[in-house]
Amino acid sequence: MLEIYNTLKRRKEVFEPIEPGKVRMYVCGMTVYDLCHLGHARVLVVFDTVVRYLRYSGYDVTYVRNITDIDDKIIQRANENGESIDKLTGRFIQAMHEDSEALNVQSPDLEPRATHSMPAIIDMIQTLIDNKAAYVGPNGDVYYDVSGFAGYGSLSGKKIEDLRAGARVDVDESKQDALDFVLWKRAKPDEPNWDSPWGAGRPGWHIECSAMSTQCLGNHFDIHGGGMDLAFPHHENEIAQSEACTGEHFVNVWMHNGFVQINEEKMSKSLGNFFTIREILKIYRPEEVRYFILSSQYRSPLHYSDDNLDKARGALARLYTALRDLPEAAPAEDTDYREHFNKAMDDDFNSPEALAVLFDMAHDINRCREKDVKRAAALAASMRKLAEVLGLLQQDPESWLQGGITSDGMSDEQINDLVVQRDQARDNKDWAESDRLRDLLQDAGILLEDSAGGTRWRRK
RNA sequence: GGCUGAGUGGCAGAGUGGCUAUGCAGCGGAUUGCAAAUCCGUGUACCUCGGUUCGACUCCGGGCUCAGCCUCCA
């Protein structure tokens, strides 16, 4: 029985889809004005894993992840670059897709873009005005009237009075209340704009997600996810807008992933302490990054450090080492591991515990591979099947172990030549020469393993 | 100030009212020409103070510390 921590309830609850066997899920995607950093990678990987597990559990999932391709920062960046908005967003959307693919993140079923969803956005704003939940300010902008929505603050556990008291919100004379937020902004000269009943302009940030999610998934759907920082105000505002518009309950389960931290601080653009996915992929392989992300439960902080990425590398080496040299086989009948794995993932997607099951399997494989190859091979097949749910261990073990970031290292040919030389020295019992060659390779990051079947090597 | 979440062994990171998490690192052994990989064994822990309990790291309450949100942010 799958339990998910629901931010709205502040506890785990048994997941029950609105429609039996089906899950409709929406995740707030990127604002495409720059390259994705590790924090974005976490959202991509975490919710990809959620979708994989739901599908593995038998649900028919419709997964929507939007793209915000119009906002202040995009306009600003395009101006700075002297580049058109379309060109800028096109570039970063492509980069995001490349990064996702590298991290073995499957494409969402739908990937709506704000600029392609204007009719739905405008309709929604019109309905909100008709329902007296929104008003046109003296400056021509359209605002949402927070005071009219009774449940405001329920997602983030905030009280309207507290918010007003601590308001650091810009004083804006056009708003009736400091907490009101903009639905439609009148275009300034030279800004991109769309026609609307309230003049040429563009949507506020929050309304696009309400419009796109309900357009793709209906007024009431199962899961809405995103980073913790979106809970307030973004998701709070989405609830207010959507429910005031449709009159229906918006979302059953709200999921929020924790931050990537660096030196005990949130990794973020504004703090400038971020690493882009691309920077990290120059040093670590994508699967190592994915493993690193999944080595912490999605709501916990994820501590970025080279040391922790190195550990991910070591852990994957152990798992792939267990998988090598085994014949193809059907997955084992033995379901204890699978049950344990499912139990871990059923508990709010506890990936660290699920990974521990894979290590138990690796241990078992190593123990029985000599005496019972059939069992070892079957276990290996089961292990890969479970790992696939996490998006891991799908590569050829030997290739993985010999692979690595090889930009300035030895080529495979050079390595193989040296290994052959060393084997000749070993045949001659010339241990001095043999050890010299091993040290030489080791300095180049190559580890040798002698066995009855011959010498093999791998990159450290 | 208001709200949220967290404090576990050298590091990372799960979990449980009494019974080995797991990985890396350490130590001893097997194996090896030497190694590596693997196996066997092993050490180190649950922020603090109270309470509940036969028994709490695990439940409850106070405190301390940390992170985050309250402004764009995944």
The gist of it:
The protein has 460 residues and is an alpha/beta fold.
What's the arrangement of secondary structure elements?
Elements (H helix, E strand, L loop, with lengths): L2 E4 L4 E4 L7 E6 L10 H19 L3 E6 L6 H10 L3 H18 L15 H13 L3 E3 L5 E3 L15 H6 L15 E6 L14 E3 L1 H13 L3 E7 L3 H16 L4 E7 L2 E3 L2 E2 L10 H5 L4 H9 L7 E2 L2 H18 L12 H11 L4 H18 L4 H17 L7 H6 L9 H16 L3 H13 L2 E6 L2 E6 L1
Parallel strand pairs: 3-4, 3-9, 9-10, 11-13
Antiparallel strand pairs: 1-2, 5-6, 6-7, 7-8, 11-12, 14-15
The structure holds one RNA strand of 74 nucleotides.
Give the tags.
3 domains; alpha/beta; Four Helix Bundle (Hemerythrin (Met), subunit A); 16 helices; RNA-binding; elongated; four-stranded parallel β-sheet; four-stranded antiparallel β-sheet; Rossmann fold; 460 residues
- What is the CATH architecture assignment of the largest domain? 3-Layer(aba) Sandwich
The geometry reads as elongated
- Strand content is 5-15%
**CATH superfamily assignment of the largest domain?**
HUPs
Strand arrangement within the widest β-sheet reads 4-3-9-10
Total separate domains: 3
Q: What count of helical segments does DSSP give?
A: 16
Indicate the radius of gyration in whole angstroms: 26 Å
CATH topology name of the largest domain, in short, is: Rossmann fold
Q: What does the oligomeric state look like here?
A: single chain
**Strand count:** 15
